[in-house]
Amino acid sequence: MDLRLLDLLVCPLCKGPLTLRRDEALRPHELVCAADRLAFPIRDGIPAMLESEARALEQDEDAA
Prior knowledge:
- The chain is mostly beta strands.
- It has a single domain, classed as N-terminal domain of TfIIb (Single Sheet), CATH 2.20.25.10.
- It has one helix and five strands.
- The protein has one helix spanning 3-8, and strands spanning 19-22, 28-33, 38-43, 46-47, 55-56.
- Strands 1, 2, 3, 4 and 5 form a five-stranded antiparallel beta sheet that branches.
- This is UPF0434 protein G3A44_05140.
- Belongs to the UPF0434 family. In the C-terminal section; belongs to the UPF0434 family.
- Pfam families: Trm112p.
- InterPro entries: Trm112-like.
């Protein structure tokens, strides 16, 4: 995923900023909206920015 794209993307629900999360191999894994506590997956380098594709963050999971 092009990191310049991250500067342009916002949460599709609240239009707030997103934080990039990486997996154990340091590959981009998901984009997180802290305000809505949702994580949008990144598949094959393409973020799935649909509410139906997002997963809710667990209570003990850090949103940042």
